[in-house]
Write a structure and sequence with these properties.
Number of helices: 18
Strand order of the largest sheet: 17-16-18-19-13-20-21-22-23
Strand content: 15-25%
Radius of gyration: 32 Å
Low-confidence stretches: 205-220, 327-362
Mean pLDDT: 83
Length: about 700
């Protein structure tokens, strides 16, 4: 292969480099030439080039000195037979984390977790595309999947550097993995088998011994959790349009005017847009715009309505004059042929588009390798709150939980370096939803300002005080639009959204009913995923002192902080009931201070702050080094056949772990009990049979705290 310098190469040199590598390089379109389907060869009959490399004369006509495309930067390759049986694995990493899970899992399982040395590029949209050569006797399938993994086999097409993406970012070969510096690797057998399994599961030209891959049938209609149609939308639109036009004829046989048609269009689209939901997931973009991008929006509806009115004097009249059938319960829309032969318009999005079409019926299933290759959490507040998480601060009325949440929110919004001596790693706009006690919200904020000495006038803290029903999708969408207006104003996504209190956004819902609370969690997730914000709910406790409501809260929360303070006491405690990504079980003392807000009336408000005195006494967990020593002692006891026990009745035998930890390590017994319980819950310890003969059971070390 000739010497190649990407920094100074023009399009003809790029194309010649690819051709020298045996790839079928062809000129490609630009976004300005075709906004929706620009990832295509800029050739009228490119399918004729799928089976063998284009002749030299053809290549020179494209990329010679005076070639037709000598100044065209955008180019691509046709995969398969014409490129020496080279195929491409396309990983949509930037939009679907399941793609990274699939690929990293394969490397961990088959390649010791190491990377594969074969040409790989980063697309203009942020994905990864990897080239392999198909081994003899195996034909790579061509398939698209819902997990963001596409295989470009025979007859596939992919853009190549130096092409420019519509985002303004060029395609680029990864450093050290450029095709001019290395050969394209032959795909190992294990990779071929994994690709065949992928194609069989998601559809495609599998070459497994069992024959062609099986494709599952598309359901007649699918709805999301709020009951909005996400599959079967075009059929629903067709029936809705036809029924409305026939009803118009029944009311008056004179064809409506253009103005009336426009009014019908607006009303129909309002009804349609309310009943349906786009399958494209994109932060902050309204539903009607996403529907239009899918080809299932107002343009398609306008076409169908126009086509129906064109049949006004024929099919519309015949249907309007036919006797009405007996009224029955409305049938669900189906994928049967369109009523009365109305033409169905093919408006599917581009096969090679960057948009991730999300099917909410698909569930991501992670095997062990997938779990181990999940990305590490990114902290919002170090050690306690991760970014893009859902959690709860809960406590009894009057305990101070709202003051704590407000102080945390203001610290995030005002650019503070820490909150309660814990580092804040990301600051930005904060949205606070509260229809409870908003009358004194300004006093609480002023008190926080005077207590901290931080100016608040320009702080990007936004209060939403209207009542919002998180069980109603229309209300949730109102919230989404409100948050989007903040994004438009600040140019930033919010780092956090607070819901104070949870019960206020659940009017009429049963907090103990799992079905209702699951819907609430999904509404929170919609906000969290759309804006990449951490959502924190402020909630009440039950009479038993636990967080009120369904166990769905405990399961869904990435962090749970229990606030406790007697009304007559100034000092209270925040207990880390659960932190999914760090050690929990600890307590932090805080105090409620009465603070003047600085007005002429002498108004005061409360302010919550962490106590100055040390909060970790004998009742707190020991340090990590001591915890490791305790676990070593538990392991040694198991190994010699005298395991410690977590059962209080073992105290008489001298095997009760909490008592032993108290005696040997000077830890309060109640704290030791909590440590053992936490380690059991998190897989650090297990309770197993040690001796089947004597039926002795005890604690066994099965994990670590690192």
């Amino acid at each position: 292969m000739h010497q190649f310098d990407p920094d100074f190469a023009d399009p003809t040199e790029w194309a010649r480099m690819y051709r020298d590598a045996g790839l079928q390089v062809v000129p490609a379109m630009t976004p300005s030439e075709n906004r929706t389907q620009w990832k295509r060869p800029a050739l009228p009959k490119w399918r004729a080039l799928e089976h063998e490399l284009a002749p030299d004369l053809t290549f020179e006509r494209w990329y010679g000195e005076q070639g037709e495309h000598a100044r065209r930067n955008n180019m691509g390759m046709i995969t398969g037979q014409c490129s020496g049986n080279v195929f491409m694995i396309d990983l949509d990493l930037h939009k679907n984390p399941a793609a990274a899970t699939w690929w990293d899992g394969l490397l961990a399982l088959h390649n010791m977790g190491g990377d594969i040395e074969t040409p790989r590029q980063t697309t203009g949209g942020g994905g990864k595309q990897i080239l392999f050569q198909a081994p003899a006797g195996w034909t790579p399938p061509t398939c698209k999947t819902s997990i963001g993994v596409d295989i470009r086999g025979q007859g596939g097409f992919a853009m190549l550097p130096p092409s420019m993406h519509e985002s303004g970012t060029p395609y680029k070969w990864d450093a050290g993995l450029e095709p001019w510096d290395m050969e394209i690797m032959e795909a190992p057998r294990w990779l071929c088998d994994e690709i065949d399994a992928l194609a069989k599961k998601y559809g495609g030209g599998s070459t497994t011994a069992s024959g062609p891959a099986e494709k599952t049938q598309t359901p007649e209609m699918a709805k999301n959790e709020f009951g909005r149609i996400i599959d079967g939308r075009e059929e629903y639109m067709t029936r809705m349009v036809w029924g409305r036009v026939v009803d118009e004829y029944r009311q008056c046989p004179i064809k409506p005017s253009k103005a009336d048609e426009d009014d019908i269009l607006r009303k129909l689209f309002t009804k349609y847009e309310t009943a349906t939901k786009s399958r494209i997931i994109e932060r902050g973009t309204p539903n009607h715009i996403l529907l239009e991008r899918e080809g299932r929006g107002i343009s398609l509806l306008r076409q169908k309505l126009k086509h129906a009115f064109e049949q006004w004097d024929e099919k519309v009249r015949r249907h309007a004059e036919a006797p009405l059938p007996p009224r029955e319960a409305p049938a669900q829309p189906s994928r049967a042929p369109a009523a009365d032969g109305i033409e169905k318009f093919d408006a599917n999005p581009s096969e090679d588009g960057d948009e991730f079409i999300y099917n909410p019926n698909d569930l991501e299933v992670l095997d062990m390798q997938g779990i181990l290759t999940l990305p590490d959490p990114t902290w919002l507040v170090e050690g306690i709150i991760i970014e893009n998480a859902l959690g709860f601060i809960f406590g009894a009325p009057g305990c101070g939980k709202s003051f704590i949440a407000l102080g945390q929110a203001l610290s995030l919004a005002s650019g503070q370096a820490d909150w309660w001596n814990r580092k804040i790693t990301r600051n930005g706009p904060v949205v606070y939803i509260s229809s409870e006690g908003v009358g004194d919200m300004k006093f609480r904020i002023r008190a926080w300002q005077r207590a901290t000495g931080i100016a608040i006038e320009e702080v990007p803290f936004y209060l939403i005080r209207q009542s919002i029903n998180f069980m109603d999708e229309k209300d949730v969408e109102r919230l989404m639009r409100a948050v989007q207006s903040i994004v438009d104003k600040t140019g930033e996504f919010p780092v956090a959204v607070y819901v104070d209190t949870v019960s206020r956004v659940l009017p009429g819902a049963d907090e103990n009913l799992q079905k209702d609370m699951t819907l609430f969690i999904r509404a929170c997730d919609m906000v969290r995923e759309t804006f990449s914000a951490t959502v924190t709910g402020i909630h009440h406790t039950s009479r038993a002192g636990n967080m009120r409501g369904s166990t769905v809260f405990d399961g869904a929360g990435d962090f749970l902080f229990h606030i406790e303070r007697e009304k007559s006491e100034q000092i209270g405690y925040m207990t880390a009931h659960k932190i999914k990504a760090a050690q929990d079980g600890w307590k932090q003392a805080f105090e409620m201070i009465e603070q003047s807000v600085g007005d002429i009336k002498g108004t005061t408000s409360l302010f919550a702050r962490a106590c100055d005195e040390p909060t970790r006494d004998k009742g707190a967990w020991p340090d990590k080094a001591t915890c490791r020593t305790i676990l070593e002692a538990i392991g040694s006891a198991w190994n010699i056949g005298k395991p410690w026990s977590s059962m209080p009745q073992s105290r008489k035998q001298g095997r009760y772990a909490s008592s032993i930890i108290k005696q040997q390590f000077d830890v309060v017994e109640k704290t030791a009990e909590l440590m053992i319980q936490t380690w059991l819950q998190n897989g650090v310890l297990s309770y197993e049979m040690r001796d089947k003969g004597t039926k002795m059971q005890g604690l066994k070390v099965t994990g670590s705290i690192d």
